[in-house]
């Protein structure tokens, strides 16, 4: 098949006409959609990555890293709002790319989104396991360290110097399994649980800010930008940039909002509200939390799995530490829930186009959820979470997300020219300048990531290309129609 065939675009009119024939229940309003975004954004970023980014890369200037990442997301979020309102389907970036650059690039980005969603869920599940084990320890229950860590990693060092290595991370696999069952049971029920847990973690985050500000020692903010160690990404301005790339993982929630399009009551209105509102709220909270945390604890001491709990311990309010861990677990749980949900909806759309087997688009007649797809995704993610350390997963999620965001910004510019007459319920202001700025900031953050992360991305995309030419190309609905 000629390369021109591989670049065939899916017409916007066809995408829109397919929206009402999915079998999904339209049960999500603007508030639930906003909470889906907040539920996914506020999680690992605040409860885990803030501390490691400060300790290893930016110091107190991690607040600038979050501001920079939030600025990049603002430009991208405006582009997402236009596309999500124009094409309210569950395929997210995959669908937007199909309408602009054609099938081959759509498949590439659909495969890339696995890094953002499925691997993102595995990453957060590993962080969840750490807080869960710590909380149980506070109430007198101890999970053996080797059964809460990935194989080969240092799980614990005993007082006599004995090193215990991980065997399997059972709590991480367990939480993936439980949430997969919940998602199979129904979207409305999952959204209710998400809303409750979002309220809990917002209350805990705000409590930390309000209580912690009284214990800030301004000396801990000096120097605000520590001197570079001599290596790129280790403090100095390059460290601020590296930290921005690392914490960008925390901002993928507004992308997950777009995957709820086909279950939104009024997607043209509710999706832009959900995307932009969740982004603004969470960026402000990230900046505030990182400022308070680095003001309480010297940044060099924040490279731990539970940095906020460490900050609370320093205040002497040990009872509050338990509350923080409960809030962290709620926060991380909602992130996993949204990421697993988003991955199944993306697979649903790709399967409808014939690029994945039909079982990924089969909706249960009673539950009205893609149960087979959700079960497969949950099983694979649980295995990855049980066997893979968080450090290996984190950078891959970040670079995969940034790559997807670049294509979203490019899609807005392209569609403004190719389909100028199509009605747009929401229009990105300042086109092409806003999308170009989004692309620029995402590229800057990608460049700041380590070289081995780029190599893993290339290998991952090569595997995806092999799958496309062995299966997707032959079964493509659009290609076979042509």
TrEMBL record:
Transmembrane segments annotated in the record for this chain: 28-49, 61-83, 104-128, 163-184, 196-216, 236-261, 273-297, 317-342, 373-390, 396-416, 428-447, 453-471
The protein, known as: Amino acid/polyamine/organocation transporter, APC superfamily
Upper lineage: Bacteria, Pseudomonadati, Pseudomonadota, Alphaproteobacteria, Hyphomicrobiales
Coiled coil start-end: none
Alphabetical list of InterPro entries matching this protein: AA/rel_permease1 (IPR002293)
Family annotation (Gene3D superfamilies): Amino acid/polyamine transporter I (1.20.1740.10)
Alphabetized UniProt keyword annotations: Membrane, Transmembrane, Transmembrane helix, Transport
Superkingdom to which the source organism belongs: Bacteria
One Pfam family here: AA_permease_2
Protein localization: Membrane
Gene Ontology CC terms, in alphabetical order: membrane
Membrane topology type: Multi-pass membrane protein
Annotated source species: Neomesorhizobium albiziae
GO molecular function: amino acid transmembrane transporter activity
